[in-house]
Amino acid sequence: MQETGVNPDVCYQCGAKLMADDKAIYMKLVSRGATSFLCMDCLAVKLGCTRAALEERVRYFRESGNCVLFR
User: Fold this and answer.
1) What sign results for the dihedral spanned by CA atoms 52, 46, 27, 64?
2) CB–CB of 25/39 below 8 Å?
3) pLDDT 10s per residue in the chain (71 long)?
4) Which alpha helices (DSSP H) does 6-50 contain, by range?
5) Residue 43 lies in a domain
6) Is there a contact between 22 and 70 (Cβ–Cβ < 8 Å)?
7) How many distinct structural domains can be found in the chain?
8) Which of 4, 14, 16, 63 has the highest CB neighbour count under 10 A?
9) Structural domain contains residue 24
């Protein structure tokens, strides 16, 4: 759920500017209906994995061509 005044273009935890892949992987792994997002670094901490693991998932989804979030 989005809080009032939350900017969807920055990470809601650290304030980093978000790129399209940051938003897409958050939507894929956390909530398809999200309106506020974590950057890949903060998401990796939340999920207990590495940024490299998330980047590999992004590559996988993009190469598979099956997910509209990564086109």
Assistant:
1) positive
2) no
3) 445 568 999 999 999 999 999 999 999 999 999 999 999 999 999 999 999 999 999 999 999 999 999 98
4) 20-29, 40-47
5) yes
6) no
7) 1
8) 16
9) yes
